[in-house]
Specification:
The chain is of the alpha+beta class and 223 residues long. The chain has a domain at 82-157: 2-Layer Sandwich (Alpha-Beta Plaits), CATH 3.30.70.260. The chain contains 6 helices and 11 strands. Helix 1 packs antiparallel against helix 2. The chain is globular and about 60 Å long.
């Protein structure tokens, strides 16, 4: 579906979707297919049909090429299994970002959205997201290293959600991200972080606004 039909009343069932779009949606919290199953289908070019176990209705075909190019996006996904880690007051020196993320890599902690900003005092802040279950572990992994610098803090926020739109149509249409941001503005939802790729735009927002944001974005694109 274009969104979770349990949360969005006018969510539409898709007749078909590309491997890449389905893989993004599965990874971003769509909770329909395991992303590994989509990876294997794409690798061996095997079409999948997603069916309901409750009815005999036709399902959604997952395949390499689809006839859905006219759609700007294929769906809206919500992921609440997210924690935001903010490391503030880091000296603005080469190599510190590498050293921070190498600590997380050594613990096999996956990092998603990353945002870096530089202040006027020669220091910089780095914020990034990790799975909620690894948030405390990520902060602990950085603690000893960060204590080498004066005025540096580690903040963990688990009350966030990642909302994403996915669609192959983004590659050939301008203004898709703007349309998403307009929907969030109309719903008075504040954006904390943004991440983009060729077929995806993700934003980090307050977890309490997650369902409202999904409905507003879906209404903006699907009417």
């Amino acid at each position: 579906y274009t969104a979770d039909p349990r949360k969005v009343e006018n969510a539409r069932k898709l007749k078909e979707i590309s491997y890449d779009e389905m893989l993004e949606l599965a990874t971003l919290g769509a909770q329909v297919l395991n992303n590994r199953s989509v990876e294997m289908a794409k690798k061996y070019n095997i079409e999948l049909e997603v069916l309901s176990s409750m009815t005999r209705a036709s399902g959604t075909i997952v395949k390499e090429k689809t006839k859905m190019e006219k759609m700007l996006i294929s769906g809206v996904a919500k992921d609440t299994d997210v924690a935001r880690i903010s490391v503030t007051g880091i000296p603005n020196e080469p190599g510190l970002a590498f050293k921070i993320f190498s600590k997380l890599s050594a613990k096999d902690i996956n990092v998603d959205i990353i945002l870096q900003s530089i202040g006027h005092d020669g220091k910089k802040d780095i914020s990034f997201t990790v799975p909620k279950s690894r948030g405390a572990e990520a902060a602990e992994a950085l603690k000893d290293y960060i204590e080498n610098f004066d005025g540096t803090e580690i903040l963990v926020d688990e009350s966030v959600a990642k909302i994403s739109i996915v669609g192959a149509g983004m590659e050939s249409h301008a203004g898709v991200a703007t349309k998403m941001f307009e929907a969030l503005y109309d719903a008075q939802v504040n954006i904390q972080m943004i991440s983009t790729s060729e077929i995806k735009v993700s934003v980090l927002i307050d977890e309490n606004d997650a369902d409202k944001a999904v409905k507003a974005i879906h209404a903006k694109f699907f009417g």
